[in-house]
Structure formats: structure tokens, C-alpha cells
Amino acid sequence: MMRAVVLDAPGPPESLHIRDLQVPAPATGEVLIKVEAFGLNRSELHTRLGLAEGVTFPRVLGIEATGTVAECPGAELAPGTQVMTMMGGMGRTFDGGYAEYVCVPVGQVLPFTSPLRWNVLGAVPEMLQTAYGSLTVGLDMRSGQWLLVRGGTSSVGMAAAILAKQHGLQVIATTRSAGKVADLLAIGVAEVVIDDGPIAGRVRQVVPGGVDIALELVGTPTLRDTLAATRTHGTVCFTGMLSNEWIVRDFYPIDYLPAGVRLTAYSGGASDLPVEVLQRFLDDVAGGRCRVPVARTYRLDDIQQAHRDMEANAVAGKLVVVP
User: Fold this and answer.
1) Nearest Cα to 141, choosing from 228, 211, 189?
2) What is the mean pLDDT of residues 21-48?
3) Can 2-124+292-322 and 126-265 be said to share one CATH topology?
4) Which fold has domain 126-265?
5) pLDDT digit string (tens) for 44-63?
6) What SS3 class is residue 300?
7) Looking only at Cα atoms, what is the longest distance across the chain?
8) Residues 99-113: tens digit of each pLDDT
């Protein structure tokens, strides 16, 4: 048996219950992972609030997990191998990572080796995949560019800033809280803008022609303003919905989009994060050349409080649970 967090139906944090479940039995083509840590994501908040589509209940939440291989019937991965997994229907169409064990298709498992603590490793999978995919697939970043990160103190926002800085970009990041400015400056952000309304004018005071690329993590309430902060022939990538709003009502492109500004989107999975990129990132963290923005670590018994903190945007960075 194993302990797992089960959601019977959408509701408040108190709807998350810890129960004893049977450890999944992997079939050929699957991997059973002993979960050592898992990160919390807005996707799971959307599921808990009843905003996600295609979810069946009861369900063990969790779109990512980090741990070691317990069983692999097809022998693609040796028992004991350190691995990460994410997306692919985890926590939605099949039980996810909020548990002591999770069973996933072998194709969505990334092996690695690292001496880092499990709570640090547990923060990485979805955060790094989303940030890396947004910057490469969504924005095609180039050294020397100016990047605006709208929603900068989210875990993905902080990871994107760190990666962009490593690739030679200058970063402007936003936060709604003056108390979180220091967190952004500490990871190398060049300029912090307090997001208390339209910010395009303030961004253009820093970069008069507008930023080259922008990562939208707040959602549709700020998207139009983010587009206005971007230069002609620049690109905005819509990736996140921290606001829980992702629909543009009565979208009329000629009126909505500034002339010549491109709008893209990114939503990916494990296959979008190359193993060598993951390993290099972990090596950089272990070597002190980079850091993982872990905000707070919880035990499984504290899952309700963890969700309260996530919903309230109480801290800057990633929330991690160690079962």
C-alpha cells in the first residue's frame, strides 16, 4: 500500500484527502516510480477548482514527480535510476504524482544523475520544461535580446529569467508585490516592474522601442498590455494563467494585436525537455552556477496548506512536497 492525495470532486483545499491506496502495478511500456518529491503547479489548482477539462474523479493529482525507478517491466530503465516525469495526462486522465508511487508511460520519463537534495530536484521537472520550451519553441530567444517576464515571481517566471540570463539576455520581470523585488534581483533580473496596472509605458522607459520578446504567465487580463510592451516584429508567448483566465472574449486580431507584434503559445511535455538540457541544468545548480527557486517545502500531510499557499500566491518560487 501507499499514501496518496485524492480529490473526489472539485472544491477547496479541504477537499484534498490523504488515503491508503494500492501501489500501481506497471505493465510493459510503463515505469513505476518511487516518488521522493513533487512540485505543485497551477494546473493542479485549476483541477481542484473544477476549471480543468477532461478530468475524471476520484483522482490523485500531480502533473509531475521526481524519484527513482522501482519497477520497469520492459527494462528500459534500471531500478534505482534517478528520474523525473511530467504531463502526458498525469493527475488528469490517470493518477499523478501526489503519492508515494506513480506509474507512467516510459516515454515520459527523463533519467538523470545528481547529488542535489530531493526537494530541490522535485522543483525542477515542470518548471524547467515550461520555461525552456517557452523560451526556445515559443520565443526563439537570442543572446542580446530584452525579455519581459509577466508573472516573474512564479516558479516558471523565475526559471525563465535564470535560463535567459544564462543565454545572454537582459530580463525585465514583473511582480505585484514590492516585497518580492529582492527575490527577482537576486536571480539576475535587470529591472523589476511592480504590476499594479498597465506597465507597457514603464517597460518602454527601460527599453524605448519595446522588448524583443515577452513571456505571458499571468493570462488574458494582462496579455494586451504585454503585447503593447513589445517592439514591432517582437514576439509574445502565452504560456501561463496565474489569473485563472485564459480566454480573450470577442477576439478581433486587427484591433487586439499591435501592428507587427507576433503572438504565440506554448504547452509541452517531457519530450520537449531534452535529457542533456536537464542534466546540464542540474549540473549547473550543483556547481553553484545556477539555482532552483524553491520557495517552501512541505510534507504530504501538509498538502492542504500547500494548496492554500499556492492559491494565495504567498511566496515567490516553487512549492515542493516531500512524501
Assistant:
1) 211
2) 97
3) no
4) Rossmann fold (3.40.50)
5) 999 999 998 889 999 999 99
6) helix
7) 60
8) 999 999 999 999 999
